[in-house]
Amino acid sequence: MGRVADDLVARVLGGGAVALDDLFTASDTLNDGDEPPSTRVDLLRAMWLVDTEDAALPWNSASVMGDAGHHIEAAWAELEAARRFEHDVATGRRMTDDEEDWADTAIYHACRYFLMGGAILSATVLVGRIRDAELRAEVVAMLTGHQSPDSPR
User: What pTM did the predictor assign?
Assistant: First the structure.
């Protein structure tokens, strides 16, 4: 691990707890090169495990995971973001009135990440969940080799 992760683990093993603010503070203290890239990915993952409602946490984590080459994990983070956006719609806890669009975009990115990770069937079964025709057409183009998943919209 790295120093930041070691400190948080020591706190929990010592009987303490780690709050979302602790994880944000730890993330803010990371400097490029000071910690292994996996520490930043792990911190982001821990954030959305601590806060199980905020769709922005898995959404933001996905791009960092993807940039670090964790494509399949990034896809699952996007799906978790989509699930949270859809939950906000279903429960009436909307914040922006365009959560359906955010959910569609998260599923689109999940498809991209699955394809980048070689999980073609996983991407294929998600196509039908994308309501936006343009996004769905882009994923179909990726599946048929007419567009690269590495070139997102």
Answer: 0.84
pLDDT at 104 over 70: yes
Q: Which two tokens stand for residue 70?
A: 């964790």
Concatenate the DSSP letters of all residues of 46-64 into one string: HHHHH-SS-THHHHHHHHH
Distance CA 111, CA 109 (A): 5
Residue 146's CB is within 10 A of a number of other CB atoms, namely 10
Q: Could you tell me which of 2, 12, 11, 93 has the C-alpha nearest to residue 54?
A: 93
Q: Which two tokens stand for residue 41?
A: 């990915």
More confident residue, 3 or 111: 111
Q: How far apart are CA 114 and CA 76, in angstroms?
A: 9
Say how far apart CA 121 and CA 36 lie, in whole Å: 31
